[in-house]
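Request: Show me your protein:
***
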Amino acid sequence: MEISPDNIILWQSGIVKLNATILYTWLVMIILVGGSWLVTRQLSVQPKLSRRQHLLEIIVDAIADQIRDASRQEPSQFLPFIGTLFIFVATCNLLTLFPIYESPAGSLSTTTALALCVFVAVPLYGIKNRGVGGYLKHFLQPSPFMLPFQLISEISRTLSLAVRLFGNIMSGSMLVAILLSIVPLLFPMVMRAFGLLIGVIQAYVFAILAMVYIASGMRAQKSS
C-alpha cells in the first residue's frame, strides 16, 4: 500500500510525471464542474422543485448554517469559498468507494495547496472588510514588537491546516487497509463505510477550521 498517491506514477516521460494525485484531482474537478452544470442549469422559483434543486438547496443551507455558527456572521460572503473547500474535499474522499481510486486529499501537495488558498483568503477577507490599513495594523497589535510572532502564527496556522488533513486522511486510509487485511471476509463493507465517514468528517473539520481562521482574523482586526 502506498502512503501517498504522489508515489503512484501512472505515466512518465523524462522529468514529466503523471501521478495518481494529478489524475484524480482532475477527475474530481471534472465531476464537480459537470455536476454543478447539471444541477444549476434549470433552477426554478416555483413551489414544486426538482429533486436535484431540492438536494442542492439542502446542501447549501446546511453549509450556510455551519458557517453562521462558526463565524457569527452573515454566511453569504464566505459561502462560495468555504462551500467549495468542503465539497471538493468531501468528493475526493467519498470517491474512495471505488477500489482503484486514491483520494488526492491523502497527498501533502494537495492539502498544502488547499491550506495556501486559506492563507491567501484570510488577508483578502480582512482587507475587504477592514481595508488595507486596518488589516496591516492588526500585525502591530498590541505592540510592534509582536510583528514577528504574528507572522509566525500565520505561517504555522497554514502548515497545521495542511498537515492535519493529510495526516488524518492518510492514517484513516491505513487503518481501513489494516482492518481489511485482518478481517477481509467479515467486515469489508463496514470498514469501507468507516473510511467514508472519516473522509466526510475531515472535509467538515477542514472547512470549519478555515472559517474559524478567517473569522478570528476579522474579529482581531475589529478589536484592534
Notes: Strands lie at 9-13, 16-19.
